[in-house]
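Weekly puzzle thread! Below is a chain. First person to post its structure in token form gets bragging rights.
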Amino acid sequence: QVQLVESGGGLVQAGGSLRLSCVASRFRYSINYMAWYRQAPGRQRELVATIASAGTTNYADSGKGRFTISREYAKNTATVYLQMNSLQSEDTAVYYCNVELKQVPRRQYWGQGTQVIVSS
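Winning reply:
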């Protein structure tokens, strides 16, 4: 069973920065992509950023120029990061790590979420 463990959330003042981390382990298939989503109270979960196996990145408009997604591989784990700068109150949400593996059929896995609160 794939395991995703997130960390790095917390309380930060507007204009500040946070870096989220998500360590993926116990995956038998190679990774197709890794991503971050977020869900604010009363709103649907939305995509924040993705990074494909080839390293290609994609960002939602809300994070362009402020957020950076990256990843690194170790022997049996993969870690995806989300560097968030110039945080705004609208960025307050629970942030979820998401991984899709190259298995057939495709399957996605989710982390437990990490809370980010931006105070104005």
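Puzzle host: Confirmed. Bonus trivia for everyone else. The first strand starts at residue 3 and ends at 7.
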